[in-house]
Amino acid sequence: MPVLPNSQGRRGGSTANRWYETFKNIKCGPSSGVLQLSFNIGGNNNGITQIEVDIDPNDFADLVDMMYSANAHATVAVMSAKIAQHISREPTRNEGVVRWARGELSDLAHRKALDAWSNDEADKFAASVDALIQELAEKEKAEAEE
């Protein structure tokens, strides 16, 4: 599991009136479908206490929100670069992700339109969104064949 070289943690407690231990060597990586943070702190009798924190994928959106709140520019810059890097490595998998995302967009457009308009208006709007999605897919296919 890779180490986060620029990160650190602090330890304190109810009996301490300050942070009394700073530690580095925080590891972060995937583990059984979750993002896992792992680190060690001093334990009783000069021992070492190992700590692991599992971040569930359902919490990833909150994690990104917190990262953005901490430093919006760095979050957008790093995430954009990393997503582009991963997409370029996995074209087949990403085709499936793109198809899924387009389907989700179509469903969302239809649901939101139904909330705001009559069925006929919502159907027309959703059909327009579907046409744009199809046009984009055809354009990407043509570019890939060139």
Summarize the structure.
56% of the residues lie in helices and 19% in strands. The protein has 146 residues and is of the alpha+beta class.
Write structural notes for this entry.
The protein is of the alpha+beta class and 146 residues long. The protein has four helices and five strands, in the order βββββαααα. The strands form two sheets. It has a three-stranded antiparallel beta sheet, with no helix packed on it. The protein has a two-stranded antiparallel sheet with strand order 1-2. Helix 1 packs across helix 2 and helix 3 packs antiparallel against helix 4. The chain is elongated and about 70 Å long. The protein starts with 8 loop residues before the first strand and ends with a helix.
The proportion of residues in beta strands is 15-25%
Number of helices: 4
Find the structural class using helix and strand composition: alpha+beta
Low-confidence stretches: none
Radius of gyration: 23 Å
Largest sheet: 3 strands, antiparallel
Which properties best describe this structure?
alpha+beta, 3-stranded antiparallel beta sheet, 5 strands
